[in-house]
Amino acid sequence: MFKGALFDLDGVIADTSTLHFEAWKKLINNYFSAKLPSDLEEKTKGVSRADSLKVILNYLEVSVSENMFQQLLFEKNEQYKESLKQLSPDNILPGVATFISELKQQKVKLALASSSLNGPLILEKLTLAEKFDAIVDPSKVENGKPAPDIFIAAAQSLNLQPLECIGIEDSIAGLKAIKESGAFSVAIGTNSDLKTADLHLSTTAELTFAAVRTAYHQ
Ligand code: B16
Ligand code: MG
């Protein structure tokens, strides 16, 4: 049996991933009068704020000064934090609260492996913070997703090996990170690249302890 569960946050625990992209769209419209295509959202999922901005500037074929780059990061986060003001336990994705309770009952340890610097604030707002045994600070991790570092650090924070853990992700970058860490991968979403996970589910509503345990033992 697995002993640890390493959770991504945006798009797995809470429905906040669209809020990130909404904030980027607004910012880029304000600064560059440009529209971002919806397929760019997947490329900004799971990766750090700075890496997301690099993806976007690359798409726009614009280069900016370091000062401007920092200003854009700051403003995107201000915009994002504004949208988080409305966040409540209602934003926990379907099935996730029950899944977390099941894991706790089974004495599985929980760690957060989110790229988001806003992770602790979001868990507080969702009233889930006390359920987690550890929260990895993404600023202390050398390489962001798709590198495996944050999932390795999350397992370590529970005094476990990645092999003893499951990792749960909604992004392609995050799935790659879980696989490289050696943890059992659970991917959630409809993108076809997510189907390479050890267990692929279309939505969090299918995320149950029974489903994961069965897949883990196969
Ligand atoms: P922040 P996750 C990621 O969270 C988001 O998917 C990604 O879109 C965002 O750029 C990144 O967090 C950084 O977030 O700007 O709040 O520090 O999916 O790894 O939980
Ligand atoms: Mg995510």
From TrEMBL:
Keywords: Magnesium, Metal-binding. Binds 2 magnesium ions per subunit. The keyword Manganese does not apply. The keyword Magnesium applies. The record marks 114, 145 as: Important for catalytic activity and assists the phosphoryl transfer reaction to Asp8 by balancing charge and orienting the reacting groups. Substrate binds at residues 8-10, 24, 52, 76, 114-118, 145. GO terms for molecular function: beta-phosphoglucomutase activity; magnesium ion binding. Its cofactor is Mg(2+). Mg(2+) binds at residues 8, 10, 169-170. One of its GO terms (biological process) is carbohydrate metabolic process. It comes from the Bacteria. The active site is at residues 8, 10. Belongs to the HAD-like hydrolase superfamily. CbbY/CbbZ/Gph/YieH family. This is Beta-phosphoglucomutase. It comes from Enterococcus avium ATCC 14025.
